[in-house]
C-alpha cells in the first residue's frame, strides 16, 4: 500500500468522507488528461485571437470544432445529452450553457466561452471570460472579481483539505463584493469522463465535504452574479441558463490536479 492509500484508510476509519478509488487518477491517466488540457488551452487561445465585435457565436463554435478535429481531438460538448453545439458561449445575463447561434457580439458584451476537449478518450474542461470591445466598470469588475474567485478557489484546493474549503474561499470573495453565486451548478471531477464525482459547490464551509487527495482531478468554475442567484432555463433550446433578474453573470473555469505540492492547473 502506498503512503497515500494508507492515509486514505486512516482518514476513512476516522469517519472522514473520502474519494472513491476511481476518483484518484494514476500517472498514465494524468499524462493523458494533461495533453487534453493543453489542446483545450490552445482552443481557448484560438477563441481569444478571433473574438471581436460583430463575430457570431456560431462562428466561434465552428472555429473550435475545426481546430479540435484537426488536432486529433473532439469537442466533448457536441451531442452530450443532445447538446447541439461544440462549445458554450454565455453572453451577459446568461450564466452558463449558452448555445452558439447567429447572435453577433457587440461592443460592451461580456461572454464566457467554455470548452471541453476529449483527446484519446481523456477530458479537460476550461472557460474564460472575454470583454468585447469596451465594457462598463460594472461589467469589468464582475469579470475581474470572478477571476479572482477562481484563483482563490484553486488556492484552497490543497491535498488533504476539503471540498468545502473551495466553496468557502470562492464565496468569501464573491460576497465581499455583494455578488451572488450559482449553487445548483458547479465544478466536478473530470478526466475519464466529462462529468465525474465529486460535485464542487462554490458555496461551502471550511473543513466540510469530501477530503481532496493527490491524484484527484476536478474543475473549479465559479458562476458569479451581480444580482440574484435565482435562474431559469431557456424553454426553446432547453439548455441556456439565465439570471432571473436579467443582471450580468460571469464564470471562469480551470481543470485542476490535486498534488502534494499544491494544486496544478492543467488548462493554462
Ligand atoms: N463545460 C461545461 C462544464 O463546465 C459543460 C457543458 S455541457 C454542455 O461543466 F452540454 F452544455 F455543453
Ligand atoms: Co466544468
Ligand atoms: Co466547462
Write the layout of secondary structure elements.
Blueprint (H helix, E strand, L loop, with lengths): L2 H11 L13 H24 L6 H14 L2 E3 L12 E4 L2 E3 L13 E10 L2 E10 L5 H19 L7 H14 L3 E2 L5 E3 L6 E5 L16 E4 L2 E3 L5 E3 L7 E3 L5 E3 L2 E4 L6 E2 L3
Antiparallel strand pairs: 1-4, 2-4, 3-12, 4-5, 6-10, 7-8, 9-14, 10-13, 11-12, 14-15
This protein binds 2-amino-4-trifluoromethylsulfanyl-butyric acid (MF3) and cobalt (II) ion (CO) (2 copies).
Per DSSP E runs of 2 or more residues, the count of β-strands stands at 15
* CATH architectural name: Alpha-Beta Complex
Q: For this structure, what is the CATH class?
A: Alpha Beta
Q: Tell me the major beta sheet.
A: 4 strands, antiparallel
Ends: how far apart? 33 Å
Helix content: 25-40%
Shape verdict? globular
Indicate how many domains the architecture comprises.
1
Count the DSSP helices.
5
Q: How are helices and strands ordered from N to C?
A: HHHEEEEEHHEEEEEEEEEE
CATH superfamily: Creatinase/methionine aminopeptidase superfamily
Radius of gyration: 18 Å
Averaged pLDDT, please?
A: 98
Any ligands, ions or cofactors bound here, and which? 2-amino-4-trifluoromethylsulfanyl-butyric acid, cobalt (II) ion
Low-confidence stretches: none
Q: If you had to describe this structure to a student in words, what would you say it looks like?
A:
The chain has 268 residues and is an alpha+beta fold. The protein has a single domain (3-265), classed as Alpha-Beta Complex (Creatine Amidinohydrolase). Helix content is 31%, strand content 23%. It has 5 helices and 15 strands. It has helices spanning 3-13, 27-50, 57-70, 137-155, 163-176; strands spanning 73-75, 88-91, 94-96, 110-119, 122-131, 180-181, 187-189, 196-200, 217-220, 223-225, 231-233, 241-243, 249-251, 254-257, 264-265. β11 (231-233) and β12 form a beta hairpin. The longest helix is centred in the first third of the chain and has 24 residues, at 27-50. The radius of gyration is 18 Å and the shape is globular. It starts with a helix and ends with a strand. The mean pLDDT is 98. The chain binds 2-amino-4-trifluoromethylsulfanyl-butyric acid (MF3) and cobalt (II) ion (2 copies).
